[in-house]
Amino acid sequence: MILYKNGLALIGAGLVKRDVLVNRGKIIEIAEWGGIVPDQQTEIVDCTGKYILPALVDVHTHGADGYDFNTADAEGMQKIMKFYVSHGVGTVLPTVMTDDEGRIMRQLQLICELAKRYPEIKGIHLEGPFLSEKYCGAMPVRYLQKPDFDKFLQFQQAAQGMIRLITVAPELDGALEFIRKVSQTGVTVSLGHSAADGERVKSAIGAGARSFTHWGNAMSPLDRHDLNMAGSALLYDNFCEVICDGKHVDKDVFRLLLKAKGEDKIVGITDSIMATGLPDGDYTLAGNEVTVKNGDARLKSNGVRAGSTLDAYTGLANVVEFSGLPLYRAIKLWTVNPAKLIGLDSRIGTIEVGKDADFIMFG
After folding, report:
1. Contact present, 61 and 275 (Cβ < 8 Å)
2. Fold designation for 56-341
3. Which of 171, 255, 345, 346 is the most buried (most CB within 10 A)?
4. Can 99 be counted among the known catalytic residues?
5. pLDDT by residue (tens digit) across 226-260?
């Protein structure tokens, strides 16, 4: 057992003086300072002057430190994971984007092997290939295809059942039935890279879709005559991913979104690429050439944004800055909200007895 003593733990509505006892990766007791008497076999960790916070959850990230999940080998993936852990991430869904089918299969298999060494990997986000050509963003158009449930099952088999989240464009032929079937398997469906109008989005939500991927980016914008996808996200009680870098969504627009959705329905994401943690320069994203200038990643071919160079720590700090929310409220966007989105809130997202000992210390 391990006893974390004399820390300021973020529990409920603020930081409180607490000791936390952990056994085999689970929190088994929480008490006021000095309230837990350890036995001789218990390891003591002195947290005096340190904050104990729930570890951050990133459900949409392509890579960091020179590698991405579409192209990295096992060694490269380990470097990505070390970067995440060093930046406060306790749960991650490595995100594989639209690509050659064989490459997708191979990378899904590699991530499954990596998960045996890194318990932080609690699933996979498959962003594509069932997406709109009109709003493809940085996705390679030649690999986009119509929704195919049998194809999804092949991907899921390669992933050994680890796909927890998939992004789909609901206006494509067969998409509604696809969303219904995928949702019935327990996988969370998110809507994105889409030209859908408001009625189609409504139908997709009725079919089981639960979220919107990187809101405001690569989706049909709100119009005074039609909600389209961006507006539908404001109307319906679904989760919205937001890239919290201040570039993909302006900070004032973020505040408007927060006002419309409430702090319990926004999921902070990085959408980070291999350039994250590295200087400006030339990189790739799933093989596409990308240039990063002033931390802003764009495709060389057409100037379209290509993910971000954001890390999770900075994303949380940005939420606090943009929103004016106190830390105990802002952190929900990076902890319990994404945990709920992927169905893991009974295990992670808050510091509670019975949950995983998934917390970070700093100070």
Report:
1. no
2. TIM Barrel (3.20.20)
3. 171
4. no
5. 999 999 999 999 999 999 999 999 999 999 999 99
